[in-house]
Design brief:
The protein is α/β, with parallel strands linked by helices. 31% of the residues lie in helices and 26% in strands. It has two domains: 219 residues, Enolpyruvate transferase domain (UDP-n-acetylglucosamine1-carboxyvinyl-transferase, Chain), CATH 3.65.10; 209 residues, Alpha-beta prism (UDP-n-acetylglucosamine1-carboxyvinyl-transferase, Chain), CATH 3.65.10.10. The structure holds ligand EPZ.
């Protein structure tokens, strides 16, 4: 299995262009199932998750092809509406095909996604919302089987114990777009990716208002047509690179970044001493001293995003003082804690809270990636640590970051992607363990 080998201590300098948003591209790809005619999405990052969803859409009769950073999608057949478990289990966001299939084809069989390393990933709120629109839903051998005569607009509440649901809001918006009558979503997710999906649907002819606020109104229409559409920049990749500049005491200019989507992140980084300045269309991030400790709680947008909790923790491992990170979205999202501990970090976890006592130095070590954002945190820590860090199972990081090692190396990081067992004639223990 491939691994990253990182030799720490290099200050990052230069400029990096942020890719299109993974979490915007995925639901918008699913929304192409609603379109009469072809869609072109750009720039769509080259990621494992995009490939997985492209494979699934292909099985659902939607042809997906790539021309550079352009993704071309067109429904050619509606005969198969079964999203199989062995694809869905690889990529949870596959659940986003449920709403479009139900709205367009009046039937869908979608495998329940199951859990993942950041916690159980229920879809009860998705199903509650679709039932409110008139769908008949049952569970059969691990699959969601949904059908309807016609979806009817309704008032739908999407609140749960951890707030709203991003992909749940996406599913209901996509289903309601072709429903008869008007749907009012109360407690909708407000993330920029939800706003981007609504803008895409409206470009196709939908009539959605209020996206980005907790109250979204969708007036159903008869038909949606294919369009060309630009995806928003990835705010989580941007936040990761901001922290990369800070953790290496470097100076990096980010291009293709929507700072207005990142106010909580920018506010927190400035609070601890990171310098962030707008610079003709981009943002320059730098740090030249030890950062201050802080307290942070992850929240639904516009609060601090859970997808940057691990990366911020890596930065706070060397802060001046004690920091408290509380995870309100995925209380178990702390698999990076033990691995950071292997590098000399001093972190104490108490339930959904981690107390990070800043240390003067991290030391490189072999560590194990466990999920997408935890892997990014280990890369950040490896660049700041003295010595060499080897990160195993980097396939996790390929799910959500486009060529991260190339982008970091171009900024001066000493990072290589290697596969030590390739052509060695020996079995890779990590592969055996994974099986
Ligand atoms: C989206 O996942 C993102 N993924 C996640 O990013 C992100 O962490 C998450 O939103 C929160 O911001 C995509 O957009 C593809 P939720 P999603 O439904 O939609 C609970 C990454 O690293 N919940 O908003 O699956 C749930 O357990 C990924 O890029 C229910 O209880 O998240 C969680 O605690 C990881 N019932 C909270 O709500 C439901 O029916 C938020 O989940 C749905 C969710």
């Amino acid at each position: 299995m491939e691994q990253f080998v990182i030799r720490g201590g290099r200050r990052l300098r230069g400029q990096v262009s942020i890719s299109g948003s993974k979490n915007s591209a995925l639901p918008i790809m699913a929304a192409c199932l609603l379109a009469e005619g072809p869609c072109k999405l750009y720039p769509v990052p080259s990621l494992a998750d995009v490939d997985f969803l492209g494979e699934l859409l292909g099985e659902l009769g939607c042809q997906v092809s790539r021309e550079g950073s352009n993704l071309l999608l067109q429904v050619k057949s509606e005969s198969s509406s079964h999203a199989r478990y062995d694809i869905v289990r690889k990529m949870r966001a596959s659940i986003c095909v449920l709403g479009p299939l139900l709205a367009k084809r009046k039937y869908a069989r979608v495998a329940l996604p199951g859990g993942c390393s950041i916690g159980s990933r229920p879809v009860d709120i998705h199903l509650r919302g679709l039932r409110a629109l008139g769908a008949r839903i049952k569970l059969d051998s691990g699959d969601i089987v949904a059908d309807c005569d016609e979806l009817i607009g309704a008032e739908v509440f999407l609140g749960g114990p951890f707030g709203s649901t991003v992909t749940g809001t996406a599913n209901i918006m996509m289903a309601a777009a072709l429903a008869k009558g008007t749907t009012l979503i109360e407690c909708a997710a407000c993330e920029p990716e939800v706003q981007d999906l609504a803008a895409f649907l409206n470009a196709m002819g939908a009539r959605i208002s209020g996206a980005g606020s907790p109250r979204v109104t969708i007036e159903g229409v008869k038909k949606l047509t294919g369009v060309d559409y630009r995806i928003i920049p990835d705010r989580i990749e941007a936040g990761t690179f901001m922290i990369a500049a800070a953790i290496t005491n470097g100076e990096v200019k980010l291009e293709n970044v929507r700072v207005d989507h990142m106010m909580a992140v920018v506010d927190k980084l400035r609070e601890i001493g990171v310098i962030i300045e707008k610079n003709n269309g981009g943002v320059v991030v730098s740090s030249n001293r030890r950062i201050a400790a802080t307290d942070v709680t992850t929240q639904p947008y516009p609060g601090f995003p859970t997808d940057l909790q691990a990366q911020l923790m890596a930065l706070l491992c060397q802060a001046n003082g004690n920091s408290i990170l509380t995870e309100k979205i995925y209380p178990d999202r702390f698999l990076h804690v033990a691995e950071l501990g292997r590098m000399g970090a001093n972190i104490h976890k108490e339930g959904p809270t981690a107390i990070v006592t800043g240390v003067s130095e991290l030391v490189g070590a072999p560590v194990m990636a466990s999920d997408l954002r935890a892997s990014a945190a280990l890369v950040l820590a490896g660049m700041a640590a003295s010595g060499t860090t080897v990160i195993n199972r980097v396939y996790h990081i390929d799910r959500g970051y486009e060529s991260i090692e190339s982008k970091l190396a171009a900024l001066g990081a000493d990072i290589l992607r290697e596969d030590p067992y390739k052509n060695s004639g020996k079995l890779d223990p990590a592969t055996i363990a994974a099986e």
